[in-house]
């Protein structure tokens, strides 16, 4: 039976069950769901926005607090015209997120429950950790870190692949009040160095190497180069704690700096398996995660403890309709926000059993994901549209040869999911019976903002549907005027929610100007968005100079600055272009030094420089030689025109007469296939 929309506070008009674009949850699913109808959602949502303090306090009471928070429960100012931007939740409360993930669940009888099923790169290589065992491992590392002088408020950089040691390291930092900053193990030495120089960690934690699919990646060598570079800039790291990932590389052949490098296995197991908790204020920092913005320098997004804890746990529970018997697998890497909130914290706070996968989803073949789903009886599977599209191309047979009958909820994140990929995911992977939670959110938001609650209302392929409890999205026009009903414009949020980021590390000014100045009174997301007649939200992509490649956020300015560091490149302009699998691809226009001929060799060396400066995931898909770039008379590059050339939409070039030299456009078109 379709949930009726009558009396809904959100949906203006009833959703017609005959509407072919609506995909209804089954009656059985709705009946057992945490939120079983749109009315129930409406009631809860109504309270969450009318009485945020009461709503979130009730939920927060379910966690362990050494000391209860004070009053007011939250304080916020999102209006730049009223002074400094400020967000606080549960201030004065003393808690610890590691305690809430582990000790609290153990005390309630879940010590022997599996916390992590770890699946290695090679099929058959696996391991498990119960909640008790995970706590013991976390405590040993926490004790070691304390012993070498890491304390409350100190930063720790973690550069690890998806080994169990990655969540262990995050939790160990949280236990002692240290601030972790995980750097995705696909970033280059230079990117790590940049982050080291920004947050000045006490220690760097890494491993010697990792196997991803058929490739070995020598992570320690990359860290060595980063530490050399940061030392040249005056930041010396005393300890580089290195885990021996034996299946990828033996200890004996790992390059080593005596005195600085320490093998994890030599020290950590010697420490006690219990470790006292550092009780921190709800507003004490939990982690820093660097993300791309429209200017070159990555931004250190800072999240604090209490609100983040309450919100990630709650969103996890409702958006995936999580129940204690579920087996959950999120394919994201802990190097990104998805891995923070929905591999480590959200699931463990709920006492969930989590699959952590080291390898590549298409290795040894395109059926690996479904092999893992069957092996562990995964019931909630959360991934990115780019993976869905790439597996879809391999054909249904890789999917249908596995049972997948354990699956009950699917999830998508990172970019808008195109309706054809949505339908394949739903019909082929989920056999038409598993709702898809298309979760829209950001590094900055900490947790889901717009997401289906499976079981509560019908989905529409390609729409993230409706706001989560406490979230008040608004769509504004270019003047910042709030639009009503069916509309299209810029997505903003009014009022704070508990897991909102509190600042950009060391640069509150940039925080205010980037996110709160464009549309005073609101948090500006950087995304374009439509709202349809039923109140559903449809994200249309970034409206700033950020592109989204395979769900990874990349600033065009970062790629441009990497390209111009090449000795033969004088100017570069990067735009996003539609890509069948990655969502968006990176398309780079480059102007070379006078007299330097464009060649295949040069193209490769330009790509190499981006891989070295940022990481392989940011390598341009296309280099377009541009003897000149379309600029206005004041010298501003007209990216609008470049986007049209890149997407071959030549009849949409628009007015080019205002360019300083309109002939460059024809020249660029002629060189498109060079
Ligand atoms: O453009 C939106 C897109 O990803 C951006 C946030 O990127 P990042 O901070 O790296 O976090 C990614 C994982 C949360 C957003 O501004 N995005 C994320 N999820 C969706 C999405 N776009 C559409 N639909 C989504 N479900």
UniProtKB/TrEMBL annotation:
Q: Known SUPFAM superfamilies for this protein?
A: Acetyl-CoA synthetase-like
Q: What domain of life does the native source organism fall in?
A: Eukaryota
Task: Tell me the InterPro entries matching this sequence.
Answer: Ac_CoA_lig (IPR011904), ACAS_N (IPR032387), AMP-bd_C (IPR025110), AMP-bd_C_sf (IPR045851), AMP-binding_CS (IPR020845), AMP-dep_synth/lig_dom (IPR000873), ANL_N_sf (IPR042099)
| Domain (Acetyl-coenzyme A synthetase N-terminal) ranges | 41-101
Q: Which family does it belong to?
A: Belongs to the ATP-dependent AMP-binding enzyme family.
HAMAP family attached to this UniProt entry? Ac_CoA_synth
Q: Which PANTHER family match?
A: ACETYL-COENZYME A SYNTHETASE
UniProt pathway: Phytoalexin biosynthesis; 3,4',5-trihydroxystilbene biosynthesis; 3,4',5-trihydroxystilbene from trans-4-coumarate: step 1/2
The catalytic activity of this protein is classed by the Enzyme Commission as: 6.2.1.1
Q: Which stretches make up the AMP-binding enzyme C-terminal domain?
A: 558-636
Q: Which residues does the UniProt record annotate as the domain AMP-dependent synthetase/ligase? A: 109-496
Q: What class of enzyme is it?
A: ligase
The identity of this protein, by name, is acetate--CoA ligase
By its UniProt entry, which NCBIfam families does this protein fall under? Ac_CoA_lig_AcsA (TIGR02188), PRK00174.1 (NF001208)
**Species of origin:** Nicotiana attenuata
Query: What biological process terms from GO does the record include?
Result: acetyl-CoA biosynthetic process from acetate; phenylpropanoid metabolic process
PROSITE patterns (UniProt xref): AMP_BINDING
UniProt key word ATP-binding = yes
What's the short name of a Pfam family annotated to this entry? Answer: AMP-binding
Which GO molecular function terms does the record list? acetate-CoA ligase activity; AMP binding; ATP binding
User: Does this entry carry the keyword ATP-binding?
Assistant: yes
Q: Entry's Gene3D superfamilies?
A: 3.30.300.30, N-terminal domain of ligase-like (3.40.50.12780)
Keywords from the named record: ATP-binding, Ligase, Nucleotide-binding, Phenylpropanoid metabolism
């Amino acid at each position: 039976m379709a949930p009726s929309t009558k009396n809904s506070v959100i949906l203006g008009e009833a959703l017609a069950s005959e509407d072919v674009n609506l995909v209804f949850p089954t009656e059985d699913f709705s009946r057992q769901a945490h939120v079983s109808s749109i009315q129930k959602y409406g009631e809860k949502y109504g309270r969450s926005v009318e009485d945020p303090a009461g709503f979130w306090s009730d939920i927060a009471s379910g966690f362990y607090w050494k000391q209860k928070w004070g009053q007011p429960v939250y304080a916020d100012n999102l209006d730049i015209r009223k002074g400094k931007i400020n967000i606080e939740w549960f201030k004065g409360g003393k808690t610890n997120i590691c305690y809430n993930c582990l000790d609290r669940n153990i005390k309630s009888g879940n010590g022997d429950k599996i916390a992590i099923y770890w699946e290695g790169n090679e099929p058959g290589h696996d391991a498990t950790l119960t909640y008790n065992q995970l706590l013991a491992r976390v405590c040993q590392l926490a004790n070691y870190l304390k012993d070498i002088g890491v304390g409350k408020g100190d930063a720790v950089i973690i550069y690890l692949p998806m080994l169990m040691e990655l969540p262990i390291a995050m939790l160990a930092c949280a236990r002692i009040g240290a601030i972790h900053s995980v750097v995705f193990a696909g970033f280059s030495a230079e990117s790590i160095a940049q982050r080291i120089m920004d947050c000045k960690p006490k220690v760097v934690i890494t491993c010697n190497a990792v196997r991803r699919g058929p490739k070995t990646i020598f992570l320690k060598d990359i860290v060595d180069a980063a530490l050399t570079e940061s030392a040249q800039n005056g930041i010396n790291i005393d300890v580089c704690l290195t885990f021996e990932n034996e299946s990828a590389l033996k200890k004996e052949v790992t390059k080593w700096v005596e005195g600085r490098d320490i093998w994890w296995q030599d020290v950590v197991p010697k420490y006690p398996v219990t470790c006292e908790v550092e009780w921190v204020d709800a507003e004490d920092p939990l982690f820093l995660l660097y993300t791309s913005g429209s200017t070159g320098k990555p931004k250190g997004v800072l999240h604090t403890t209490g609100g983040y804890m309450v919100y990630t746990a709650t969103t996890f529970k409702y958006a995936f309709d999580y129940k204690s018997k579920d087996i959950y697998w999120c394919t994201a890497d802990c190097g990104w926000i998805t891995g923070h909130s929905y591999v480590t914290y959200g699931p463990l706070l709920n006492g969930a059993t989590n699959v952590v996968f080291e390898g590549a989803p298409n290795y040894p073949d395109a059926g690996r994901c479904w092999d893992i789903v069957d092996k562990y009886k995964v019931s909630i599977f959360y991934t990115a549209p780019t993976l869905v599209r790439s597996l879809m191309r391999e054909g249904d047979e890789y999917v249908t040869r596995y049972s997948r009958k354990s699956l009950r909820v699917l999830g998508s994140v990172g970019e808008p999911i195109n309706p054809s990929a949505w339908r394949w995911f739903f019909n082929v992977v989920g056999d038409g019976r598993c709702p898809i939670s298309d979760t829209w959110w950001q590094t900055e938001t900490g947790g889901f903002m717009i997401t289906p609650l499976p079981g509560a209302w019908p989905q529409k392929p390609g729409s993230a549907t409706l706001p989560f409890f406490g979230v008040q999205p608004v769509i504004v026009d270019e003047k910042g005027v709030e639009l009503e009903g069916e509309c299209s414009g810029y997505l903003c949020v009014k009022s704070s929610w508990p897991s909102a980021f509190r600042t950009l590390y060391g640069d509150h000014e940039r925080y205010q100007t980037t996110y709160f100045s464009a549309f005073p009174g609101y948090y500006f997301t950087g995304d374009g968005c439509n709202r349809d007649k039923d109140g559903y939200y449809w994200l249309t992509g970034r409206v700033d100079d950020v592109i989204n490649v395979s769900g990874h956020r990349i600033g065009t300015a970062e790629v441009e600055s990497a390209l111009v560091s090449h000795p033969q490149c004088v100017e570069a302009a990067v735009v996003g272009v539609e890509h069948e699998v990655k969502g968006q691809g990176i398309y780079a226009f480059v102007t070379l030094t006078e007299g330097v001929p464009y060649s295949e060799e040069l193209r490769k060396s330009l790509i190499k420089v981006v891989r070295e400066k940022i990481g392989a995931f940011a390598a341009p898909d296309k280099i377009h030689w541009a003897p000149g770039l379309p600029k206005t008379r004041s010298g501003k590059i007209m990216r609008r025109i470049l986007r049209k050339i890149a997407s071959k939409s030549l009849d949409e070039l628009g007015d080019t007469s205002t360019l300083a030299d309109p002939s460059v456009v024809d020249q660029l078109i002629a060189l498109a296939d060079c």
